[in-house]
Design goal:
Structural class: mainly alpha
Radius of gyration: 34 Å
Distance between the termini: 60 Å
Order of helices and strands: HHHHHHH
Mean pLDDT: 78
Number of helices: 7
Shape: extended
C-alpha cells in the first residue's frame, strides 16, 4: 500500500474573496479615548447583497447526456484499440476454423446484418420462434423499443444508404410494425383493456 491517498479533495469555495470582503466591512480603528461615540454607517443591503447568479441556460436532454459522457478517445487510442480488436477477432476466427475445418472465413459484418439483428430481436420479443405446444413469451414493451430503435436508425441513415439497403430497412420496419399491430389487436380482442389515457 502507498501512503498517497486514492482521491484528492479540492476546496472550490471562494475563501479569499470572503476574507477580502470581511476586511472591507470591518469598522475603522476606534478613535482615541475620550473622543466620544461615533456614528458608523453600514452599507445598504442592496450594496452588501451579492449579485444574484445569472440564470443557467436551459439544457436539452442531449446536452445533459453529452455532459455525462467521458472525454472521447484520441485518434491514436482509437487506432490502437481497433488494431487490437481486429487481431483478437482474427484469433477467435482461427480457433473456430481449427475446431471446424470446413468452416470458411466469415464475411465482415455489414448493414444488412444490423437490420437482420433488429428484425430477429423484434420477432422473438413478439413470440415468434416459440416451439409447438409451448405458450409464446411476449415482451410487448421490448418489441416496441426494438421497432422504435429501428425507426431511429432509418431516420439517422436517410440519404446515406444504397437503394438495396434502404429497401431492406423499410421492408423490415414495415413487417415489424404490422406484426406489432396484429399482436396488439389480439391483446384487445382477448379482453385486456388498456388503462385510461392520462389527460
Amino acid at each position: 500500500m502507498t501512503d498517497k491517498p486514492k482521491f484528492e479533495v479540492i476546496d472550490r469555495r471562494k475563501m479569499k474573496a470572503e476574507e477580502e470582503e470581511q476586511q472591507s466591512r470591518r469598522e475603522p480603528e476606534p478613535p482615541e479615548p475620550g473622543a466620544g461615540p461615533r456614528l458608523v454607517v453600514n452599507e445598504s443591503r442592496a450594496e452588501a447583497a451579492p449579485e444574484p447568479p445569472e440564470p443557467a441556460a436551459k439544457t436539452t436532454p442531449e446536452q445533459e447526456f453529452e455532459g455525462a459522457l467521458p472525454p472521447p478517445p484520441t485518434a491514436q487510442e482509437s487506432k490502437e484499440q481497433k488494431a487490437a480488436y481486429e487481431a483478437s477477432a482474427e484469433r477467435v476466427e482461427d480457433l473456430l476454423r481449427a475446431q471446424n475445418p470446413g468452416l470458411g472465413k466469415q464475411p465482415p459484418a455489414g448493414f444488412e446484418h444490423l437490420v437482420q439483428q433488429f428484425y430477429l430481436s423484434g420477432m422473438i420479443q413478439m413470440g415468434a420462434g416459440t416451439q409447438e405446444g409451448q405458450r409464446p413469451r411476449v415482451d410487448i414493451v421490448g418489441a416496441r423499443n426494438t421497432i422504435d430503435l429501428l425507426g431511429i436508425l432509418a431516420e439517422k441513415t436517410r440519404g446515406n444508404l444504397t437503394a438495396q439497403e434502404d429497401r431492406m430497412l423499410q421492408s423490415v420496419l414495415f413487417e415489424l410494425r404490422m406484426a406489432f399491430l396484429e399482436l396488439t389487436s389480439m391483446i384487445n380482442v382477448q379482453g385486456v383493456t388498456p388503462p385510461p389515457a392520462k389527460p
